[in-house]
What we know:
- InterPro entries: Brnchd-chn_aa_trnsp_AzlD.
- Helix content is 77%, strand content 4%.
- By secondary structure, it is mostly helical.
- Strands 1-2 form a two-stranded antiparallel ribbon.
- Strand 1 (58-59) and strand 2 form a beta hairpin.
- Helix 4 (70-86) packs antiparallel against helix 5.
- The chain is extended and about 50 Å long.
Amino acid sequence: xxxxxxxxxxxxxxxxxxxxxxxxxxxxxxxxxxxxxxxxxxxxxxxxxxxxxxxxxxxxxxxxxxxxxxxxxxxxxxxxxxxxxxxxxxxxxxxxxxxxxxxxxxxxx
Length: 109
């Protein structure tokens, strides 16, 4: 593939990604959604974050049960406590990053 075709492909993929992300916001802003749908959609971010979180705590083994990722679990525990106590995303992220740094520094993973 030539450089020109590659650049056009990257730009078109970027445009498609941008349109897929922006279009729902434009459509929702123009329409009035029912209360039950807004209530349902309010759970989507929590569900997505929970799925990402659970995926990072487990290690996939083909044909066997997943096992716990010890390094990520050790770093997640203080972050969970910080989230419950502070209810602040910034504090939770800082504690999680610091906990992962300590776990890796001490070689507990």
